[in-house]
């Protein structure tokens, strides 16, 4: 039987606040989607008509998956902070930088050199990812992630 005893514990309030922090940063990327959807909702004849539309379903799916993804990322960063024994802001910044380089940097390099996307578009995405990785690790380090700080 599989057990979860090998997963590091993370303070639930750190996961919740990290989710809010991370979701706020990811909304910077999803804001254009919600902005267009909101304008279409106001232009629709009735609220019921809008809520039955595919646009509302797509926005709800994006919003829900963004929250779930933010919670999973918050747990993962908190677990890494606990597992590596990071106690300082400098260590949290290094850990966040490593997470950024491992998860996001390859896609940005590909967007610039292979796909030839505009630099301003890539820069906005990179800034949001910096907040989601380095900013999240600094925020969680400030809040505290250990369930028992004396362990």
Summarize the structure.
The chain is mostly helical and 151 residues long.
How would you sum up this structure, described in words?
It is a single chain. 77% of the residues lie in helices and 0% in strands. It is globular, with a radius of gyration of 19 Å. It is mainly α. The chain contains six helices and no strands. Helix 1 (12-43) packs antiparallel against helix 6 and helix 5 runs antiparallel to helix 6.
Overall average residue pLDDT = 82
Number of helices: 6
Q: Helix and strand string, N-terminal first? A: HHHHHH
Strand proportion, as a percent range, falls in under 5%
**What is the helix content?**
over 70%
State the low-pLDDT regions, or none.
Answer: none
**What's the main sheet like?**
none
Q: What's the N-to-C terminus distance?
A: 27 Å
Radius of gyration, rounded?
A: 19 Å
Main structural class: mainly alpha
Shape: globular
Extended strand count: 0
Mind sketching the topology for me?
Blueprint: H1 12-43, H2 47-51, H3 54-84, H4 89-103, H5 105-113, H6 119-143
Helix pairs in contact: 1-3, 1-6, 3-6, 4-6, 5-6
Key descriptive features of the protein:
151 residues; 6 helices; mainly alpha
């Amino acid at each position: 039987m599989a057990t979860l005893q090998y997963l590091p514990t993370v303070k639930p309030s750190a996961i919740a606040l990290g989710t809010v922090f991370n979701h706020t940063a990811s909304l910077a990327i999803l804001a254009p989607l919600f902005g267009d959807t909101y304008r279409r909702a106001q232009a629709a004849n009735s609220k019921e008509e809008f809520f039955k539309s595919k646009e509302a379903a797509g926005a709800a799916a994006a919003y829900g998956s963004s929250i779930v993804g933010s919670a999973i990322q918050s747990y993962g960063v908190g677990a890494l902070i606990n597992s590596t024994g990071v106690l300082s802001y400098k260590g949290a910044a290094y850990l966040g930088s490593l997470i950024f380089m491992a998860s996001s940097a390859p896609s940005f390099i590909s967007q610039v050199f292979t796909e030839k996307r505009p630099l301003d578009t890539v820069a906005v995405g990179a800034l949001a990812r910096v907040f989601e990785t380095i900013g999240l690790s600094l925020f969680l380090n400030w809040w505290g992630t250990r369930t028992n700080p004396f362990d």
